[in-house]
Write a structure and sequence with these properties.
This protein is mainly β. The protein has one helix and nine strands, in the order E-E-E-E-E-E-E-E-E-H. 12% of the residues lie in helices and 45% in strands.
Length: 137
C-alpha cells in the first residue's frame, strides 16, 4: 500500500520507552510518528545496525547525540549515525517527531536498541538540564 493516513494507523506503546508510535515498514527502511509526553525519553542507547533521522513536528526536546547536546524544535532534523549514543527528554507537554530508520529489519523502531554503557550518567545530564529548562519559565 503506497498511501497512509497517520490518524488511521494503529498507535502502539513502544517496548523500550514510554513513547507511543505509529509505524510503517518498507523494503529498506521503516518510518514512524513517535510521541513522548512531558519529561519522557528512552534510556540513552545506540543502534549498531541502523542509521536514523528524525524531523521534529511538534514540541521541543533536549537531545544528546554522541558528544553534542541541544534543544530541537519543529522543523529541526536530527541525524543519528549507527553506533552513536543518543537520548532526549521532552520539554513542555509533548513532542512529536517523524522517524526514518534503515535498514527495515522486522519493522519495529526499537529492534536494534542497545542500552548505552554510560546511560545512567547521560540520564542524569538529561534530567538536570530538564530541571534547569523548567525553571526558566
Amino acid at each position: 500500500m503506497p498511501f497512509y493516513r497517520i490518524s488511521e494507523m494503529e498507535e502502539v506503546r513502544a517496548a523500550i520507552s514510554p513513547a507511543t508510535a505509529r509505524t510503517v515498514p518498507g523494503e529498506l527502511m521503516k518510518v514512524g510518528v513517535v510521541t513522548y509526553l512531558k519529561g519522557e525519553g528512552a534510556t540513552p542507547h545506540y543502534h549498531p545496525n541502523e542509521e536514523q533521522f528524525y524531523l521534529v513536528l511538534e514540541g521541543r526536546r533536549y537531545v544528546i547525540v554522541g558528544d553534542e547536546e541541544r534543544i530541537v524544535e519543529p522543523g529541526d532534523i536530527v541525524h543519528i549515525p549507527r553506533n552513536t549514543r543518543h537520548g532526549g527528554r521532552t520539554i513542555g507537554e509533548k513532542s512529536v517527531f517523524f522517524v526514518v530508520k534503515s535498514p527495515c529489519g522486522d519493522g519495529d523502531l526499537a529492534q536494534d536498541y542497545n542500552a548505552a554503557p554510560d546511560a545512567a550518567e547521560v540520564v542524569d545530564r538529561l534530567e538536570s538540564k530538564l530541571d534547569e529548562l523548567s525553571g526558566e519559565g
